[in-house]
Amino acid sequence: MKIKILLIFFSIFLILNGFSQTKPFRFGFKVAPNLAWITPDTKNYSNEGPVLGFSWGFLADFTLTENYFIKTGFNIDYLNGKLKYPYAIVLSPDTVASTGEMVRKYNLRYIEIPLTIKMRTNQFNKMVFFGEIGFGSAFLLKAKSQDDFRYNDGNSNYKTDDNNISDDMKFFRGGLIVGAGIEYFIDESTSLMFSLNFNNGLTNIFKGENTVDPSLKEKGTLNYFVFNFGVMF
Q: Pick from 197, 161, 146, 209: which is nearest to 36 by CA?
């Protein structure tokens, strides 16, 4: 059944592509600064603001009709966020846990495979405008943190950097992608691309529980704006 569905989809793609006057596919690459934040869904957890990051990736447009495309490729996303929440720390096996407040900056690296429908206008002089909507499937490559633990006495803290927190994060992240942009054509097929996308996290990125109250499961979504600068061929 799955093979039949794929064959039907491929046949439709070939038929639609036969009516198009544009290239059947185009490829390119991009670099993209991003601005990410974590929206917590756990009691007493708070977002400490957006944090800058960076992405780069490979682009592919597959033509459906003259102005409609399936857009995919892959991105390597360096996404960051910061949370504040109650925390209990044990500095050595011989000491009891100390409670306080943790401010943690998350440094997360994902590989994402986006799949969107891209819709564009007719060409005006050398420019076209486009919008896109779809879904992104991201897989965790690395997760580290910078921790600032503040004791309840308010007079001291304990800082650590470059902590491996991969075991605390879920491997898969799903997101809804919406965006809009401009392509400026240098010649008939080569263009410069500029776009702004919003990636709205749909899945929980955490898999642990709070160290002060283990009955509180950590929940939160990762969201970000990304400013894309690329070249399509």
A: 197
CA distance 73 to 67: 19
* Count of H-run helices and E-run strands, the chain: 1, 9
Domain 2-232 is of which CATH architecture? Beta Barrel (2.40)
- Spatial separation of the C-alpha atoms in residues 165 and 162, rounded to whole Å: 9
Check residue 42 and report its DSSP letter: S
Q: Domain ranges for the chain, please list them.
A: 2-232
Element (H, E) at 219: none
User: For all residues of the chain together, what is the average pLDDT?
Assistant: 91
Predicted confidence (pLDDT) per residue in 75-127, tens digit: 999 999 999 999 998 876 667 788 999 999 999 999 999 999 999 999 999 99
Helix (H) or strand (E) holding 13: helix 2-18
- Cβ pair 220, 193 in contact under 8 A: no
